[in-house]
Specification:
287 residues; alpha/beta; 2 domains; ten-stranded mixed sheet; 40% helix
Length: 287
């Protein structure tokens, strides 16, 4: 049985569409864990759990606060452990919908080799393939797209859809809550590989992601820059002074350009705050 984690942060409408897509899944061996991260749509989330209760087993976890991506999903994992619920984990962002075969193909990919820790799947937006796998070096990621239907390796699994082996996560742990947002799935993937597990991706099915703005919010700049220091501290290989310096320069220049373009200097001030908090190792949720 697979435990599907869906983290809610003002996302009830999106979650409704995601849950509806699950009703068409060819694989029915799953339960849904809705995790509420302390926003004002608790009643809507409860209504969704009732609406789909005849379709599949569904649980609701109330965090009463915003624990971020890392802490929110960790709360779901703790819920499983505290209630003796077994099974692998499938973490889904609320803004995706699954194809009929998505879960089946994720499971087949996981079972295709020994020591597979996690699996991702082709991600599509507006009928265009965004990525099949991800190449990661230093602080830079490159998206790869394949013309064939295949199972391939990936340097890390994107956080929008990750199938995670339960035995592995019991050993390695889930997300580091010091990140709160940004880089936590990279950290998780690197820890998995350090323990000798493989990361795979399958192009034999897909998820469809809603079109998102590519622009970063001021808060995103803060976490993006600050958490790079934590990633570098934990995984220094190929993330030396020069590599990190140029990453910071590019990120701050981007925030400066956006601040000038929008006459809103919150982007730049958040970036500078993230820089200083990263240097001073002030992690977790932004004060």
């Amino acid at each position: 049985m697979i435990n599907i984690f869906i983290l809610n942060w003002n996302s009830a409408n999106d979650i409704d569409e995601l849950l509806n897509s699950l009703t068409f899944s060819s694989n029915k061996a799953f339960r849904v864990i809705l995790i509420h991260n302390g926003t004002n749509d608790w009643d809507e989330l409860v209504d969704l759990s009732i609406k789909y209760s005849n379709e599949f087993e569904i649980h609701v976890v109330n965090n009463n606060d915003n624990f971020g991506y890392a802490g929110g999903n960790n709360a779901g994992f703790n819920y499983l452990s505290n209630n003796d619920i077994d099974g692998d984990l499938l973490i889904l962002n609320p803004d995706v919908v699954l194809d009929k075969t998505t879960i089946d193909e994720l499971v087949l990919a996981k079972n295709s080799e020994e020591d597979v820790g996690s699996v991702m799947v082709r991600t599509v937006e507006d009928e265009n393939i965004i990525y099949d796998s991800i190449v990661f070096s230093g602080f830079t990621q490159k998206y790869s797209i394949y013309s064939t239907r295949s199972i391939i390796s990936t340097d890390y699994c994107a956080g929008s859809c990750i199938l995670i082996d339960r035995e592995m996560v019991e050993r390695v742990g889930l997300f580091d809550e010091n990140y709160f947002l940004y880089w936590e799935e990279v950290d998780f993937s690197l820890r998995i590989m350090e323990e000798g597990y493989k990361l795979l991706s399958t192009t034999k099915s897909q998820i469809r992601r809603k079109k998102n703005s590519t622009e970063r919010s001021s808060n995103a700049y803060y976490y993006f820059i600050r958490n790079s220091f934590l990633l570098r501290k934990k995984f220094p290989l190929n993330r030396g002074n020069v590599c990190h310096f140029w990453f910071i320069i590019k990120a701050i220049f981007s925030s400066f350009y956006k601040s000038v373009a929008e006459l809103n200097f919150n982007y730049l001030t958040s970036s500078v705050k993230g820089l200083f908090d990263g240097i001073n190792e002030n992690y977790g949720k932004r004060p």
